[in-house]
Write a structure and sequence with these properties.
It contains 7 helices and 2 strands. By secondary structure, it is mostly helical. α3 runs antiparallel to α4 and α5 packs antiparallel against α7. It starts with a helix and ends in a 7-residue tail after the last strand.
Length: 158
């Protein structure tokens, strides 16, 4: 194997690492983190990465960036992560799987909206079939909608 092929394989593996790590969010949240603590879960997710980046770069960002960083931090870590973990706590695993399987349809809609790029009909039909298949496989029982999310019938209301 030459250096170009090795570098490409390393790049592909590195690119595959992000979805694998991101995909563990639901399992880690529901099985390993303290229940119903989205802010704690957000802190445990964001702080180690931030400290690692600070340790690797060993410098603070320029002063001109501090306002921008505050807005980004508020939107990403202050709003998105707590809502992500709240959703992981409240959403049943089956429904999370169905929502995750609908991502190709969301991507097709975004491609159409942003670039007017059509997704071929067979691909759309396969994406719909995949969502339906996942829904049939994992959804079952009676789930109740509460103001804070879905609740299985065996859990008492909060």
């Amino acid at each position: 194997m030459d250096a170009g092929t090795t570098g490409r394989a390393r790049l592909v593996l590195l690119g595959a690492l992000a979805p694998v790590v991101w995909g563990t969010t639901y399992v880690v949240t529901t099985e390993l983190l303290p229940p119903d603590r989205p802010m704690t879960a957000s802190l445990l997710r964001a702080l180690p990465a931030g400290l690692l980046l600070l340790a690797l770069t060993r410098q603070l960002p320029p002063a001109a960036w501090w306002g921008r960083l505050a807005v980004l931090a508020l939107l990403n870590f202050g709003a998105f992560f707590p809502l992500l973990f709240l959703g992981a706590y409240r959403l049943p695993g089956g429904l999370a799987a169905v929502v995750g399987s609908a991502q190709p349809l969301v991507a097709a809609a975004l491609l159409w909206t942003a670039f007017r790029q059509r997704t071929p009909l067979p691909r759309l039909l396969w994406a719909v079939a995949a969502v339906a298949g996942v829904a049939v496989a994992v959804l079952g029982g009676r789930w109740c909608w509460t103001p804070s999310g879905w609740r299985p019938p065996w859990r008492a209301p909060p």
